[in-house]
Amino acid sequence: MHFIATFDPRSFLDTCASYLSAFIFGTLIGAERQYRQRTAGLRTNALVALGAAAFVDLAVRLTGNDGAVRVIAYVVSGVGFLGAGVIMKDGANIRGLNTAATLWCSAAVGACAGADLVAEAGLLTLFIIAGNTLLRPLVKAIDRVPVVGRSAEATYSVSLLTDQAHAGLLRDLLVDRLEAARFPVADVTLSDRGEGSIEISAVLSSSVVETAELDRVVEFLETENGVTHATWLTAREN
């Protein structure tokens, strides 16, 4: 049999090491994604890393390093199409970009493992997990800092309807309540809706918003005297 004639125990063990390391590192990356209930979780990241390792290892076995370089280029573009499948547009918001980037990085980990660069694959895994965990508080802290001037891109707004007599008081209350919930306010506008109705709208400068907290702010405002309706919505980018 051709298999017996071509079987090399040392090469087979090398392949096993590549597959195993890619599987372990991909599982570690995916475990963090699974914990946060992302679209591409544990199994997806593990399989992406394992698949990339398999293709690169196969290319090394058949054609050497030159063939592996060509295969890695195809892996990069192929995983790009896979990542596009987890990106979703929800109104003015785009979700899944970080998940797609994580899949792309998982493929890089697998490619390193397939090329027998196991130590480099492990180091890259640590950086990927750090990027998805340690940078999260920093991102939220930066996004909650008010931006001075007209350069802010507001993504959310909170509005309420009232009458002329309560407009001034409720405007201040709206701003105070949002600031207390750590939602920096970029702008507040009062609009006449006719028949004595005034709409107060506060645009938030933060692009990272906990919608459950916004719900609580709206529920509080609806209980205030003079408020006929309160809601929040995603604002369009300017």
TrEMBL record:
It comes from the Bacteria. It is a multi-pass membrane protein. Coiled coil: none annotated. The keyword Flavoprotein does not apply. It is found in: Cell inner membrane; Cell membrane. GO terms for biological process: methylation. The chain crosses the membrane at residues 12-30, 42-62, 68-88. The keyword Disulfide bond does not apply. InterPro entries: MgtC-like_C, MgtC/SapB/SrpB/YhiD_fam, MgtC_SapB_SrpB_YhiD_N. Residues 156-232 form the MgtC-like C-terminal domain. One of its GO terms (cellular component) is plasma membrane. Residues 21-139 form the MgtC/SapB/SrpB/YhiD N-terminal domain. Keywords: Cell inner membrane, Cell membrane, Membrane, Methyltransferase, Transferase, Transmembrane, Transmembrane helix. One of its GO terms (molecular function) is methyltransferase activity. Virulence factor required for growth in low Mg(2+) medium and for intramacrophage survival. May be involved in regulating membrane potential by activating Na(+)/K(+)-ATPase. PANTHER family: PROTEIN MGTC (PTHR33778). Belongs to the MgtC/SapB family. This is Protein MgtC.
